[in-house]
TrEMBL record:
Transmembrane segments: none annotated. This is Zinc carboxypeptidase. The keyword Zinc applies. InterPro entries: Class_I_gatase-like, Peptidase_M14. Its cofactor is Zn(2+). PROSITE patterns: PEPTIDASE_M14. SMART domains: Zn_pept. GO terms for biological process: proteolysis. Keywords: Carboxypeptidase, Hydrolase, Metalloprotease, Protease, Signal, Zinc. GO terms for molecular function: metallocarboxypeptidase activity; zinc ion binding. Residues 1-20 form the signal peptide. It comes from Flagellimonas olearia. The lineage of its organism: Bacteria, Pseudomonadati, Bacteroidota, Flavobacteriia, Flavobacteriales.
Length: 840
């Protein structure tokens, strides 16, 4: 085809659909012809296809090149290497003065300053899109919004640019978005197929909602485990926007949702009332008028809650901004049949686009009020703190510097002031980020509501098993500005005899894996002992890792020393040089209680029927903390899998429907001496199918009791409150058991968000974790659930099958990649699994 002809076709397309694109932005003509529309740039109209993230970035980059209203900034990179960008759009004059405007804006976030020029500085608006990859309408709307703001010369738009600085984050989750984009485009029919049964509308596991490791990034703002959130948080605390959007999609059989959310009080108790009463209603009024004007239906108030602070629509609320949630009924694909006819991709995009422009309008028209609100917010943080008797929180851990470091990292990322005095850390309450301090340390047991959209507990100190206490007087010490120097391990000296790695440190497992992968054999101590080291006598706890030098058949002493040094430097674990095997106290180094451990060869079942979040958490843990590969086998391939190539099988929660021969394959394999690790409903499965002889906690079923009649309308609330949405409970653990090696505390907090209730084992040595007598730490649970189910149950069991064993976790130890306090239990199951016996 000649170039001319191609060009001809190209222009023909443009003329054809410029009018089609007017469906979105007709009212904002005239547009600057120098600025390419999305359609001109992409070669197809918005809504015709799903746009790949690299094209989104390319288009925004183009806008920054051709327009004097825009500049682009990369704030991070995803696991898969995609760029995370923000396009800043404002008037050319504002853009030239952005640094001064920023300094003026930031004065309002500093309680020690008292600026009153509320109306002078343009308002800072962060339009953020597509945190859930398979809710794609919003990124397409981002392109239209960016075009409108850079190209339109309509007086209304020029006014917004004069009075606002708009930060467009087009795709919060590019890895998930591209997964879904590929799916929707590859099944797109011509003509379109609206039948909901078509493949286009039914993505395959793990679907596009989550990021590379199948994490929900709309829960990660507080936990900050992933680079997407970490990059965003750094950007956030640089700019403190006044208004932040969070665009989503929901089921196709619905309309459109915007805030205010559910009113009956499942609200974060530390949030100012003005936020969810005044501001949300004020903005809601704008949204309803705008959607009315295009004939779109919507609803507010009846669902969703903004309690959990890790949503994209709630975190800004804790930073003096207004976070706004939008939910659009999804076309999931390009066109889908619903009860009202058809819902099309362009229709969903238009609603999101309309809300985007309306957000800018509402923010600009209320800018003085929003800015004063932010100023009051940070000032009230200090006032509230001064009313509290608690002066601060102190925490620390003498045995595990790397876990403490990980927690401090989190505090610093949220701009919480932290001080260090000796081995203790102090977080004073009287600081501008007081509400984040509350979020990290305060726990609740009284609730105004009982049905939660997600977690009802988020005290992060408990996630990290951080022993902390409130203090009434402060001894601050030195301010911590970075985590770099928090772990200081002494360089290990050379030994001809042995090295010992202290297993109490969080990174000990990573060091173990590193040395095993280099071919060294390590032993684990099943009893504590005290031994002479080159830096004096040292008592080692359960699980201490011993590297015997002369027993390494394939490595000489120099090589062993080099590897041990490498492991120590890489993971900063306390490592000691041992001159003699004769202990000062307890077992000697040649004891049968110090026993060589087998390198795990691990496989995990994934795919349709398994819970992608939990599988992703296992994968993420091993990749990013331990640096150990794990084979992920889709369920559809299980039949052909040679299990004998592995010694450890991980089954996360899921609905497992194995054939009899497949079940026997697992059972026979375990019986040969291998380890099966089950989490959540997979543990229930192992009991139901009688793979193990354990039992579930009996549920009382009295068939003769009369059932109390209740109003039909209350059913969702009544039923909803009996599910454990996510709460923290105390568990007593047996620290002498290999599964609990590395723990010093006999009581640890665990996260429960399921209804898996394991009965304690009949074997006296098999219940490794049992809920404590008074188990409540944080979050909502009904009294009935607490008494009948939780209190009598176990959290962690081991059960023998032949010469192998099944490790049954009732609760997910790896929850959202942030439970440093319990994921050691899981790693122990993986690395020490074959050492576990169930004594009769
Ligand atoms: Zn969503």
């Amino acid at each position: 085809m000649s170039k001319k002809l191609l060009l001809g076709i190209f222009f023909a397309c443009i003329t054809f659909s410029v009018s089609a694109q007017d469906y979105f932005f007709k009212k904002f003509h005239p547009f600057n012809p120098e600025v390419p529309s999305p359609e001109e740039f992409l070669g197809y109209g918005i809504g015709d296809r799903h746009t790949r993230h690299d094209l989104i970035v390319a288009y925004l980059t183009k806008l920054s090149e051709v327009s004097d209203r825009a500049s682009i900034h990369q704030y991070g990179q995803t696991h898969e290497g995609r760029k995370l960008v923000i396009l800043t759009i404002t008037s050319p004059q504002n853009l030239n003065n952005l640094e001064q405007l920023k300094q003026k804006h930031l004065q309002f976030t500093d309680p020690s300053q008292n600026p009153t020029n509320y109306d002078e500085v343009p308002i800072f608006i962060n339009l953020a899109y597509n945190v859930h990859g398979n809710e794609p309408s919003s990124s397409e709307a981002a392109l239209l919004t960016a075009y409108t703001l850079t190209a339109s010369n309509h007086p209304e738009i020029l006014n917004y640019l004069d009075k606002g600085v708009i930060f467009i984050d087009p795709t919060i989750n590019p890895d998930g978005r591209d997964r879904h984009t590929q799916w929707a485009n590859m099944y797109q029919g011509n003509p379109l197929v609206a039948d909901p049964a078509d493949a286009e509308h039914n993505e395959y596991w793990p679907m596009g909602r989550t990021n590379h490791y199948w994490f929900d990034l709309n829960r990660d703002w507080l936990l900050a485990i992933n680079p997407e959130s970490r990059g965003k948080l750094n950007w956030y605390h640089d700019w403190y926007p006044n208004v932040v959007t969070d665009f989503h999609e929901m089921g196709s059989q619905s309309t459109y949702f915007f805030e205010p959310m559910k009113t009956n009080g499942s609200l974060n108790p530390i949030m100012p009332k003005e936020n969810y009463e005044d501001l949300n209603n004020l903005f809601g009024d704008y949204f309803s008028k705008a959607l009315d004007s295009i004939g779109s239906f919507y609803f507010t108030k009846e669902v969703f809650d903004g309690t959990y602070p890790g949503y994209g629509s709630s975190y800004p609320d804790l930073q003096g901004g207004l976070g706004i949630l939008f939910e659009q009924a999804s076309s999931r694909g390009h066109k889908q049949t619903t009860d009202f006819g058809e819902i099309t991709f362009p229709f969903t995009i238009r609603n999101q686009y309309t809300s985007s422009i309306t957000t800018v309008k509402a923010a600009v028209e209320n800018k003085a009020m929003l800015r004063k609100y932010q100023q009051d917010f940070f000032k009230s943080g200090l006032t509230n703190a001064s009313k509290s008797r608690i002066q601060g929180y102190t925490f620390g851990d003498d045995y595990d510097a790397n876990r403490v470091k990980a927690f401090v990292d989190k505090l610093l990322l949220h701009k919480i002031d932290v001080y260090k005095s000796g081995n203790r850390f102090v977080v004073p309450t009287r600081q501008p980020q007081y509400r984040m301090v509350q979020t990290m340390f305060e726990t609740y047991d009284k609730y105004r509501d009982s049905v939660y959209y997600d977690a009802s507990a988020w005290s992060l100190a408990n996630f990290y098993n951080m022993k902390y206490s409130p203090v009434n007087s402060l001894n601050l010490g030195e301010k911590v500005t970075s985590t770099k120097s928090l772990v200081n391990t002494q360089a290990v000296q050379r030994s001809e005899y042995a090295y010992i790695i202290d297993y109490d440190d969080y990174n000990a497992v990573a060091a173990l894996n590193y040395l095993q992968s280099k071919g060294l054999v390590l032993s684990s101590a099943f009893k504590p002992f005290t031994v002479k080291t080159t830096v004096g006598n040292k008592r080692f706890n359960y699980g201490a890792l011993v590297v015997p030098v002369s027993l390494q058949q394939k490595k000489d002493a120099d090589t062993v020393y080099q590897l041990v040094q490498e492991a120590q430097q890489k993971f900063q674990v306390p490592t000691y040089s041992i001159p003699s095997g004769y202990s000062v106290q307890g077992v000697d180094l040649g004891s049968r209680y110090i026993s060589p451990i087998t390198k795990p060869k691990a496989v995990m079942l994934i795919g349709q029927g398994t819970r992608s979040y939990e599988a992703g958490e296992v994968w993420h843990l091993l990749d990013t903390r331990v640096h150990m590969p794990i084979t992920k086998v889709p369920m559809r391939n299980f039949g052909g899998l040679d299990l004998d190539k592995y010694n450890t099988l991980v089954m996360v929660s899921g609905s497992y429907n194995f054939s009899e021969s497949q079940f026997n394959k697992i059972k026979d394999w375990v019986s040969k001496g291998n380890t099966l690790i089950t989490i959540g409903t997979a543990s229930e499965w192992a009991i139901d199918k009688k793979l193990v002889t354990e039992k579930l906690t009996k549920k009382e079923k009295d068939s003769t009791a009369t059932v109390e009649r209740k109003p039909y309308v209350d059913a969702p609330e009544n039923i909803g409150k009996e599910s454990v949405g996510g709460a923290i409970f105390k568990v007593d653990i047996d620290v002498t058991h290999p599964l609990a090696f590395g723990y010093r505390d006999t009581t640890i907090p665990v996260y429960k968000n399921n209804s898996v209730w394991l009965a304690p084992s009949k074997n006296a040595y098999a219940t490794v974790g049992k809920y404590s007598k008074n188990p409540h730490v944080d979050g909502f649970i009904t009294a009935k659930n607490m008494e009948e189910n939780l209190k009598p149950s176990a959290s962690l069991l081991v059960s023998e099958v032949g010469s192998g064993r099944v490790v049954l976790f009732a609760d997910n130890p790896n929850f959202r990649g942030s439970w440093y306090g319990t994921n050691r239990l899981f790693l122990n199951a993986l690395f020490l699994g074959d050492k576990i016996e169930v004594p009769e």
